[in-house]
Amino acid sequence: MENRVDQIGTAIIFEDEHIRVWLLDLPPHGASEWHDHHNPYRYVVTRPGLVATEYEDGHRELQDDLVSDTRFQSADARHRLVNLSNSTYQNVVIEFLRVR
Question: Residue 12, CB half-sphere, CA atoms under 13 Å: how many?
Fold first, then answer.
């Protein structure tokens, strides 16, 4: 199995054999790198904002995230997160690593 790590967030702030924790900071109208999630994950919003998840196929999902909003996701299609707000958006992404 491939052990590729895409740039999911701004920085990895913790990692062990079970989880990888990313901080994602998006400046006003900024976007994350295009990336894939190879592992299931949960994110928790720490700075609110209107964001859009854009997929390579052109599909777009809007979210008006509030502080403490959280969602669990399975591994998913290549995408990026775009901050549509006039202030910095931030969340913490916790990847659940598969034990190999």
Answer: 9
* pLDDT of the residue at 66: 98
Output the pTM of the full model: 0.88
Q: What is the pLDDT of residues 41-76, one digit of tens each?
A: 999 999 999 999 999 999 999 999 999 999 999 877
What integer pLDDT is reported at residue 58 of this predicted model? Answer: 93
Structural domain tally of the chain? 1
In a domain, 2, yes or no: no
In a domain, 3, yes or no: no
Domain membership of residue 6 (yes or no) is no
